[in-house]
Amino acid sequence: MTTSTFVAGRGIVYLLDARSKLLLVLLLCIEVFLPISQIGLWVLFGGVFLLAWHATGFKQAIQPIRSIAFILVVMTLFSPLTDRDGTGLLFIGERLILTSEAVTNLSVLVARFLSITYLCTLYVWTTPMADVNLAFRWYGLGYHAALVLTLAFRFIPFIADSFRMIQDSHALRTSVEFEGRRSRRQRLADIIPTVTAALVFALKSIPYTAMSLEHRGLGRREKRSSFRQLKARGGLFTQLLVSVMIPTVFWFLFTTL
Amino acid sequence: MKSPVPEKMTALRIALMAVLTAVVVVFTLIVRVPTPIKGYISLCDVVITFAAFLFGPWVAAIAGGLGTGIADLIGGYAQWAPLSFVIHGVQGMLIALIARVGVKQGVPGDAKLPAMIAGGVVGMIVMTGGYYLAGGVLYGFEAALVEIPLNLMQSGVGLVLGIAVAKAVLKAYPPVRALAIH
Questions:
Q1: Is A202 on the interface with B (CB under 8 A)?
Q2: In terms of domains, do A121 and A88 share one?
Q3: Which residues in B lie closer than 8 A to residue A62 (C-beta atoms)?
Q4: Is residue A3 part of a domain?
Q5: Are the CB atoms for A5 and B74 separated by under 8 Å?
Q6: N or C: which end of chain A has fewer CB atoms below 10 A?
């Protein structure tokens, strides 16, 4: 099981520091809920999409749309039905189906959702997970909390492999002739032994991990290990300033206030 | 019961949270049960409920929140990560807090069945309601309605299997009680 979300690519997004990028993503995600014009929201989505396309290629850049396609279809089908304000655009017989206001509201919702999706996705595509953790550390995440995060990432492939092995060994006990006859309830009940075994296996590793941590010096006054420091190209202050300036300029260009 | 371990971040607690977080990620991404409408539900709620019944509110909140958040990041739904962190974190915490009412000794998993079910039901409401609100803010309350039945089913399965698995683990691996710091 791969835990990395990093996609190798090119462009300015890879040069930006994890901390300044995090600030930029956060500010822009907040900004899309402020009074911004419909055009502004689509410009933002277009810009982030083009950035993703340039950085990772079209095939990769289109993936988030595929993953949210179902929600986009549901939004298109259901959201306009409850919006009755504005000029009527579509009627079936006497019944009003679509209004101009509903189309505008749907457009805003879709652009906002796409923008947030692409902003967050582009961040995890272009920032190694270790740097994300370090960025959180810089913003105040405690040493122990960061350690939990780091350890969890180390354990995911190990537990995933163990679970698959346990699942396979349990599957060997099931007779093939009864495979098709089991009810849904029975199949759900069949999961319990596998899940229990997998959990016991994972729980047994906890005391050993705790001992390893203590051997590595956890809890001692004199620290024996520390997290590495992130380095920002061109200075962190400059990058943070740019991260604040982009949403500010965007606000002045597209605010509806 | 007074915990034998001081209320601070010990190596054991860090290891416990890290391993359970990883288990939540694995159960969210790998272990999936097909639904009648040709979709899938994940078993993350099983681990969250299990963690709440065995390890108390803080471990359940951290493992549940962090685990589902990481799963969203890895699974390609990064926009949901902060929301999942909060929703599943609160879900795990409330399940443990409600289930352990009346338990004077032992883990919340030693509680009577009605208390465990009450905790689980509150967890179901928090999870389903939380995702409905979050979905409503993100893409409209009409579209967010579609996810309610699936979330109810997922958290319901999580409650039933979570209780069964917690009881089974307590029986199969009694030393788990020694890990239960809460």
A1: yes
A2: yes
A3: none
A4: no
A5: yes
A6: C
Q: What is the CATH number of domain B11-179?
A: 1.10.1760.20
Question: Alpha helix locations (H) across chain A?
Answer: 12-15, 18-31, 38-56, 58-61, 63-67, 69-78, 100-126, 129-138, 143-171, 184-215, 236-254
Distance (Å, whole) CA A232 – CA A211: 36
pLDDT level of residue B100 (50, 70, 90 thresholds): confident
* Beta-carbon separation of A210 and B164 below 8 A: no
Ranking A163-167, B16-20, B178-182 by mean pLDDT, the lowest is: B178-182
Tell me, yes or no, if A219 comes closer than 8 A to chain B by beta carbon: yes
| Token couple for A156 | 């995911």
Question: What pLDDT, in 10s, does the model give residues B42-54?
Answer: 889 999 999 999 9
Q: Are residue A144 and residue A120 in the same domain, yes or no?
A: no
ipTM: 0.86
Residues A198 and A246 in one domain: no
A63, A110, A152 member nearest B18 (Cβ): A152
Q: Are residues A123 and A146 in the same domain?
A: no
Residue A72 shares a structural domain with residue A169: no
Tokens encoding B119: 């905790």
Residues of B in contact with A214 (CB under 8 A): 11
Q: Tell me the whole-structure pTM to 2 decimals.
A: 0.88
* Domain, as residue range, for A156: 140-215
